[in-house]
Amino acid sequence: MRIADIISHLEGIAPNAYQESYDNSGLLVGNANDECTGVVVSLDATEAVIEEAVAKGANLVVSHHPIIFSGLKRLNGKNYIERTVMLAIVKGVALYAIHTNLDNVDTGVNAKLAEVLGLQNTRILSPKKGWIRKLVTFVPKSHIDEVMSALFAAGAGNIGTYDECSFRNDGTGTFRGGEGSDPFVGVPGQRHEEEEFRLEVLYPFDRQSKVLNALFASHPYEEVAYDLISLENSRAETGSGMIGELESEMTTLEFLKYLKEKVGGVVRYTKPIGEKVKNIAICGGSGSFLLNDAIRQKADVFVTGDFKYHQFFDADDRIVIADIGHFESEQFTIELLYDAIREKFPTFATFKTAVKTNPILYL
């Protein structure tokens, strides 16, 4: 087992390309080709977590938050970030972070929180736009099924709960092979007409290299004609936050007590605005940027962390804000990642950290 095997599996769940532009997910310390002796899963990578990994004989820490978020100009131990990185290097422990890319998939951080809260009929609160591409290519009729099957296998043609989606129409293509060409049909130096299909398929932007490789490998032409088009369509499977329904309505205070029971800590909230609540929007971590999306989606309550004092006024009698804290809203990510690794590698040494990394304490 190599560290790269763990990374490949995790990025199959939450591709690194799905992280936000400001983020720093991925392998931060270590060599992906090294043998992996064990994994410790945590929300944060701290000195205590590194020591825990060493004690368990594990040389990989998979955390949600990246310990290196902005550039490091020197390593001399002046703060906890530098000390943690230095300790990981000295002890031979690799550090891997899976942060906003895990936030941005519909099986990630928010799906886990929704599961804990018992939400049903969940969907992404703010789907991402611009993450879909369209491939248009031209295929001779003799090879249309072969090319389509290859593109589907590479991840093209998925729309929501449907797969193998495409559009094609027939027409006539022309070409003339130049000196040194070896055309699949026709004769070099003579214009050739061929009955072809115009084939269109959609794919997520992170699959582009696989889709193009599949196209080139399956297409019979020496030179393949194709167009790549960026779309502004939103993708329902990726985006920020999540919204769902409680199994049955509750009063606002009943829900807030239920929420605290499920997540612990302290719940800071704005005044109730209705007798009952059922539609609940959530965002693990810092989610204030999604408040207007939650209001637009008719949520009764928006559950997240890190709201500032003046931001609570923005509820403006349109929604109840329930701030449960950053750590509390993401704590279940440890279980999510642990289960994901164990499902793929059931006999591998995988551990949930016993270190509570929340820097905030409550009386």
From TrEMBL:
GO MF term set: metal ion binding
UniProt KW keywords: Metal-binding
Residues that bind a divalent metal cation 1: H65, D103, H326, E330
Domain of life assignment: Bacteria
Gene3D superfamilies in alphabetical order: 3.30.70.120, NIF3 (NGG1p interacting factor 3)-like
Signal sequence segment: none
Binding residues for a divalent metal cation 2: H64
Pfam families: DUF34_NIF3
GO cellular-component term (any): cytoplasm
Subunit structure: Homohexamer.
Family listed: Belongs to the GTP cyclohydrolase I type 2/NIF3 family.
Record protein name field: GTP cyclohydrolase 1 type 2 homolog
